[in-house]
């Protein structure tokens, strides 16, 4: 997206490249038309490198062989192409084509030795063309990898917040279930006892009035309990499938630690109901088998819920509880008759509608099921099937009646994800010990995007090749310079008229590619003379001018020595 700041930056860069192109062409004694054309070309091609990086790179590389003013643009185009050309293969092909074409054009245009031009041009093009592209690509890929890491870190932070929210909702559900199952049961018993006392003929009117107040208070407490449970459950229903099972399982594990909340505690529930004047019968059949802690507690909850519902909806009705040990499961059944004086046991009472729902979740956790129905005499039947052992591996199982149930492995509970101490709310997602597994997997899935190893490998190979080429070039040039270069003192020491043999003994023989092409643009030689042209070790008057010393011989004598400059 082209923002005002980016537009201003691109405009400034185009202006700078245009001015540099004009300056280079001016120093190269280019004409006015050429200077203006190169300045405009550099200014126009600069912004195009963003949308056509490969094209601009090839144009700048090929054009720089003929027009030196495109040299600064070549550096910028190589840097931009390294970042913007997609795919390692395409980028490598583009840079290889630009390198080879530019090198060939330079070799074709040289007026001196092709070997000398290759020795200088090959490493020079690597520096100005290939190295900027490699550095740019490495920098871009590293920034991309950093963005990926930040993205995954943000994702982990979001997931941690979600997990913390689910943990809070599970805790609210646990509290709501405990309040409904335990406190609701006790309030129901209080209401039943108060109702029984209220009709006792031995009580005085004042005592009967106090008992009535007690019963009304218990009913009001039931109303308030329903409101509190509703508040605790508010907003959790949408997350029931994700967190309900784990919350109930965790609650079952904690509650199972209390021995009185298992099958052994059912007799206590029966005794409490009998003390309230309710006829309760407890029957057992089959050979008792041990249950898992969660299943043992679920059996207790089934009986507790059945008694509570009977006291609420059918006060005074007789209740029958049966614990039937089948070969593979415990069947718990609570049946109450219709309440005396009511039709079908219907009665207006406080009911939050959550007990049976929570009970179904509890039994589902252990691979069991719950069934409710009306009896023929208008009563109510609550039955549960609880297997002795949970399904292996947490796999779904088929319960009685064809209902599909699931056992949730406790190791999947949120509080047991970390084998060490549970992390707090403020713990970091990424600690100093290393990257999370999610980031490691993300990095392995995005190898093509990162490409750091490829970039480093190619850069290392190029640098090694450059170093080898540089060493070879230095050694080669050192040997060749001694064959075709002298200093001004040796030139001054030679006098016109000296014998040719004596002069040649003091000078290099000039049999080197460094001495090739020195006659181009040189002054005319004396007629019939044999001349030796050598380069000077000093620099010329301009960067594109080379100083030359020429010695001309005729009839075995030095007849002329001359110093001049030629264009390189």
Q: What's the helix-strand series? A: HHHHHHHHHEHEEHEEEEHHHEHHEEE
Q: What is the multimeric organization of the chains shown?
A: single chain
Helix share bin: 55-70%
Q: Note the total helix count.
A: 16
- Enumerate the strands of the largest sheet in spatial order, edge to edge or round the barrel: 1-2-3-5-4
Radius of gyration: 48 Å
User: How many β-strand runs?
Assistant: 11
Class by helix and strand content? alpha+beta
Strand content: 5-15%
Low-confidence stretches: 237-259, 344-350, 393-435
Distance between the termini: 46 Å
Q: Report the biggest beta sheet as strand number plus sense, adding barrel if it closes.
A: 5 strands, mixed
The coarse silhouette is rod-shaped
Mean pLDDT over the full residue set:
75
Overall description:
- The protein is an alpha+beta fold and 568 residues long.
- Helices cover 56% and strands 12% of the residues.
- The protein has 16 helices and 11 strands.
- The protein has a 5-stranded mixed sheet with strand order 1-2-3-5-4.
- A hairpin with a 2-residue loop joins strand 10 (545-554) and strand 11.
- Helix 5 runs antiparallel to helix 6 (114-198), helix 6 (114-198) crosses helix 10 and helix 6 runs antiparallel to helix 14.
- The longest helix is centred in the N-terminal third of the chain and has 85 residues, at 114-198.
- 31% of the residues are buried.
- Residues 237-259, 344-350 and 393-435 have low confidence and may be disordered.
